[in-house]
C-alpha cells in the first residue's frame, strides 16, 4: 500500500475540526487499506506502532531527526535547525527541504506503508552503541524516497508530534461504518476494545471476519482489560438507593491498582494506565504466583505499602518509593507491599467479565489462598445506611480512603473502560490534618511478629477524660519505635502489667496485654478521623462513633514528666478535630 494514501488522508483530517468529517476520511482510508496491514495503519494514525501496553514507543529525539533530514536532503544540519526555529515543526521543515530537492530528483521509488512501518519499527527497537547511526540511516532512507508531503508526516510520526487528534472512539466509529455494517455496531466493537486494549487487533478482526468475529471476542491473557471505574456519591442513603437497596461495600484501599495476568508460573502486572509494571513489583508477582490457585487468571488488586514491623497499612505516599527502575531490591525490603484482591475477570479459560459481581467475587475467593500479604478486599453486604457508615469509618481508620460500594444485581457485569454506577465510591469530603503532637497513655499492647517477635507490635493508647476520670482509647501505635525502644519496652512496662483491662480504661478493642494507665508517650498522627471502634469522644461528633488518630507515630519522647492525668484530654482531641477540618477536592 502506498504511503501517499495515508499522507493524503492525514492532510484532510488535519484540515478539519469536525469529528464526523474526520470519521469519514478515516473510513475512506480504512476501506482502501489491505486487510492484512489494517492493524498497522490504525496504529500509525494514532502515532503508534503497537498498542500502548507493549511499551514500545517510536520516540526519536528531534536532534537525531534533524540529522536524518540533513542527510536525506543534502543540506547542513545548521540550515535545517535554522528553518526549524522558524517553523517550530520538523514536519514542515522536512517538507520544505524536500520540495527544494524534488526538482533535482529524477527517479524515486514510491514509499509503501509496509516499508515505513518496518523502518519505524526497527528504529524503535534499535539498541546498543551504534543504534544512533542506525536510526539516522533508517529515517534518512525513508525521507530520501518520500514526497514532500509524505516527509511531513514521517517526520512528525517519528518525533511523536503527529497529533491528528484521532481519538480511540473515532477509530471505533470508523471501523463500525467501514466493516461492521453501520455506526450502531460501535458498541460491540467498543467492548472488544475495552477487553483487549488493542485497536489494531479489533480492526483486523472486524475487517477480516466482520462483526460476527467481534461478537465472539473474549478476554485473553496478556492483553490488559481497560479498568472499570467508579462514580461517586456523598452519603450511604444515596448510595443504597442508587444500587437498589443493597450492595457489597468494600474497603477502598489507598494504593496502586494492578491487573495481574497469571499464566502458569508467569505473571504480568499492568497499571491503571495499562503499562506493564511487573519490574516495579517483583514481590507482587511472586505473591500472585504463590497464592492464586488457578493455572490461568486475570485478577485485579490494590497494591498497598505495609509497615514491615506492624503489618499495618501505610499512607499512599509511602508507596511512591516503589516507583523506581533501580534499587528495586532495597525498596522491596524497606517498603514491602500487600495485595488486596477485588475482582476476577478470567479464570482457567473462562471469561468472567459478563458475570455479575457476586459470581466474580465467588471465583475470586475460591482461587485466592489468603496469607499475610495477600487478602481479598474486606467487605460487608448491607442495605443499612448506618451499618455502611460505620464500615466506612472503620475503613478510614484502618488506613483506607473509604469504600467502594458495588452492585449485586444481575446486571452487575465488569464494565471495562467505563465509569458507571455499578461501582460507587464513598470518600470523605473533609480532612483533618494533625499538626500538633499529643501525649497519650499506654493502656495495652499487642504482640509483635517477625522482627518484633518477643516485643510489642503496637501499643494501645488512650486520652484522658477528667470529667469521668477515665481513659479512652484513641489509636494503636506501632511506628516510630527504635530497636532499643522495642527491646526495652516489655521490660519497662512489666511492672505496670495487669491481667485484664484496667477499670478506668474504656476500650472495645481486646489488647493482648493490659497495663495500668501510668506511662505517657508523645505521638503525632496524619489526621483525626471518626471511628466506630475507639471510645475517645464516643457519640460526641456523631452517634455511634468516636475519634481516632490515623497513621500514628511515636515521636521518641517518653513523657516521664507527665502523669496519666496530665495526658491530652478527650476534649482537646475533639477541639483539634473540629479546628482542622478542611474540605478536600476530588
Ligand atoms: P481515585 O483517585 O478515587 O482512586 P480513580 O479514578 O483512580 O479514582 P475510581 O474508579 O474512581 O478510580 O475509584 C476506584 C479506584 O479505587 C480503583 O481504580 C482502585 O485503584 C481503587 N480501589 C481500592 N480498593 C478497591 C476495591 N475494593 N474495589 C475497587 N477499586 C478499589
Provide an overview of this structure.
The structure is a single chain. By secondary structure, the chain is α+β, with helices and mostly antiparallel strands. Among the domains are: 229-428, D-amino Acid Aminotransferase, Chain A, domain 1; 432-585, Beta Barrel (OB fold (Dihydrolipoamide Acetyltransferase, E2P)). The chain has 20 helices and 23 strands. Strands 13, 14, 15, 16, 17, 18, 19 and 22 form an eight-stranded mixed beta sheet that branches. Strands 3, 4, 5, 6, 7 and 8 form a six-stranded mixed beta sheet that branches. The radius of gyration is 30 Å and the shape is elongated. Adenosine-5'-triphosphate is lined by residues 229-230, 250-253, 257, 272, 302, 342, 377, 404, 425.
